[in-house]
Specification:
This protein has 490 residues and is of the alpha/beta class. The chain is 48% helix and 6% strand. The protein contains 21 helices and seven strands. The protein has helices spanning 35-39, 45-64, 77-87, 101-110, 124-132, 139-150, 190-199, 211-224, 226-229, 249-254, 259-271, 277-301, 330-342, 347-360, 365-375, 381-392, 409-415, 436-447, 449-452, 459-463, 471-487; strands at 3-6, 28-34, 68-74, 92-96, 113-115, 154-155, 158-159. Strands 3-2-1-4-5 form a five-stranded parallel β-sheet, sandwiched between helices. It starts with a strand and ends with a helix. The protein binds flavin-adenine dinucleotide and iron/sulfur cluster. Iron/sulfur cluster binds at residues 329-331, 409, 412-413, 418-419, 422, 424, 426, 435-437.
Length: 490
């Protein structure tokens, strides 16, 4: 019996998922470009271009290998599969488990048979058994289990170097007078031009849309950036938008690279003595720790988790998120402008600037989540929902993170060059020149002091409120800042 193998746009790998045991002589491979997905939101054009062009390149590579491939443009995924069902009578549909609750449901209803999703290093059931045995879901505990289970950076049952985690060595501000390696550029081919023309957009040369391009990005990271990844991991520089970050998340998330390929290259470089332990450990933790933990938590916490709003945050998304001319805050203006350009900024601007602002202004978590989901090249439900709802805006009452990542301007000033060119002063919390982050940080703590004073990791910060002699003035300034942000005048 002929089989239809359904490949979603985030499983573009020949050796994993349902393609690993595919038979070019018998199977038909199906990809569906869902028009309702494309039209369903105001997606960042670079993101749409990347996802669609990567899928069309992948379909072409399978045809070149001799597969019968149907790349269907249909109203939605199920409508596309119905076309195949009508064409081949009695055909059976197979796929690897999908990466979202929504697609899992619609494909199950259609009758697709699933094999395990092996695009991650941790089966969902294994993660659930770890999570259900924990009092709190501390990522560090999960990560240590992963190191041991996968036998990565281990020696005689202990972590290589004697420590599990080298983060203390990895918190440097951006370096001065530093020469960053050049950016890797990806040149566009006929398929890229065709997709760009259909989307009426002009892609940058930032993102590859082929497996070869993704492998080139991996090599570029290992050879030119990996050694310095750790120390500047948290820094935000004015003279470089990527620092030593790998820029690999889009490819690991759409399947052009498998996480085990990235880990293999990283461990090999460490074993050759090319990179110090703090960079090797820091990067490997992101992949076998954070990425796996986030995916595990998405499935473990369930579909309703995305609707959490434990801090009762109801403010509409501020205009500066969609239009950087609506603010004089140099950090926000620069970061949102960067996102407009390339659909990407690294972890710290996502967490300590964008999410921090949404958190301390009391912005509605779901509106902020939807914005992040539309804007980022590497976004998907499984990764955005826990990162935003749990880590970014603490909307889950601390199920994932024991404390919120709220910070004033002092943190941004220490870790970036933004404040020097800003209309505001990170040291001030009251007055017209006060940094909005600094004012709103204290206002946030004051608004939620009853909740956070019970949290031993937050009580010191909350008790700091008692030392503020100008709290009334600060609360007044916070109202001015909030209404100015709403009008796009701060
Ligand atoms: C609010 C918020 C939203 C985020 N949204 C996304 C998202 O939609 N998609 C996404 O892939 N990452 C997301 N992240 C995690 C992280 O910011 C990005 O993975 C990273 O910036 C991608 O750039 P890079 O490949 O250069 O990463 P590097 O800094 O080089 O890190 C290496 C890899 O580690 C993995 N990783 C590290 N942290 C995480 C994490 N928290 N969750 C998942 N993977 C992680 C990624 O695969 C990344 O490629 C988010 C983080 C926050 C705080
Ligand atoms: S002073 Fe405040 S608003 Fe301005 S760049 Fe620094 S942190 Fe951002």
């Amino acid at each position: 019996m002929k089989r239809a193998l359904y490949i979603p746009f985030d499983q573009l790998h020949r050796k994993y998922g349902v393609l690993k045991d595919a038979n070019a002589a018998e199977d038909v491979v199906v990809l569906v470009e869902s028009q309702s997905m494309i039209r369903g939101a105001d997606w960042h054009p670079e993101r749409l271009f990347f996802l669609i062009s990567s899928a069309r390149h992948f379909a072409q590579s399978l045809r070149d290998e001799g597969f019968e491939v149907r790349y269907i443009k249909a109203d939605n995924t199920v409508a596309g599969l119905k076309i195949i069902k009508n064409e081949f009578s009695g055909i059976e549909f197979f796929a690897a488990e999908q990466s979202s609750f929504r697609l899992t449901r619609s494909l199950t209803e259609f009758g697709v048979q699933f094999i395990e999703n092996d695009f991650f290093l941790t089966p969902r059931a294994l993660f659930a058994s770890w999570a259900s045995s924990q009092k709190s879901y501390l990522m560090e505990n999960f990560y240590r289990k992963q190191r041991t289970r996968l036998d990565i950076l281990m020696e005689h049952g202990a972590p290589i170097g004697g420590q599990w985690n080298y983060d203390k060595e990895n918190r440097l501000p951006p370096p001065k007078n530093y020469t960053w390696p050049p950016y890797l550029e990806h040149h566009r081919d006929e398929i890229d031009h065709e997709v760009a023309a259909e989307l009426s957009m002009q892609p940058t040369t930032t993102w590859a849309t082929t497996r070869d391009g993704a492998l080139a990005q991996l090599r570029n990271f290992i050879e030119n950036h990996f050694g310095k990844f750790g120390p500047y991991e948290d820094a935000m520089a004015l003279d470089n938008w990527a620092l030593h970050h790998s820029l690999l998340s889009p490819y690991i998330n759409n399947g052009l690279l498998h996480p085990s390929e990235v880990i293999h290259a990283a461990v090999a470089a460490f074993n050759r003595g090319d990179v110090p332990i703090e960079s090797a450990e820091g990067f490997i933790r992101q992949i076998i720790g954070w990425r796996e933990y986030i995916n595990g938590m998405y499935w473990y916490l369930g579909e309703d988790y995305r609707d959490n709003n434990a801090l009762g945050a109801h403010r509409d998304l501020l205009p500066l998120f969609s239009d950087p001319t609506k603010t004089s805050m140099n950090c926000m203006k620069t970061i949102v402008t960067d996102i407009k350009k390339r659909s990407w900024v690294h972890h710290i601007p996502r967490l300590m600037v964008l999410s921090n602002l949404a958190l301390i202004t009391g912005t509605n978590p779901q509106q902020f989540l939807d914005w992040m989901r539309r804007e980022f090249i590497d976004a998907a439900d499984w990764v955005m929902v826990p990162n935003v709802i749990g880590m970014g805006v603490h909307a889950d009452a601390g199920q994932m993170m024991s404390k919120p990542y709220a910070a004033g301007g002092a943190y941004i000033s220490r870790m970036s060059g933004y404040c020097k060119g800003c209309a505001y002063n990170p040291k001030l919390r009251v007055g017209d020149d006060a940094c909005p982050f600094t004012t709103l940080y204290w206002d946030f703590l004051d608004r939620h002091k009853e909740t956070f004073v019970k949290n031993h990791r937050m009580s010191q910060q909350v008790n700091g409120l008692k030392r503020l002699s100008d709290l009334d003035e600060l609360k007044h300034r916070a109202q001015e800042v909030l209404s100015g942000l709403e009008k796009g005048e701060i």
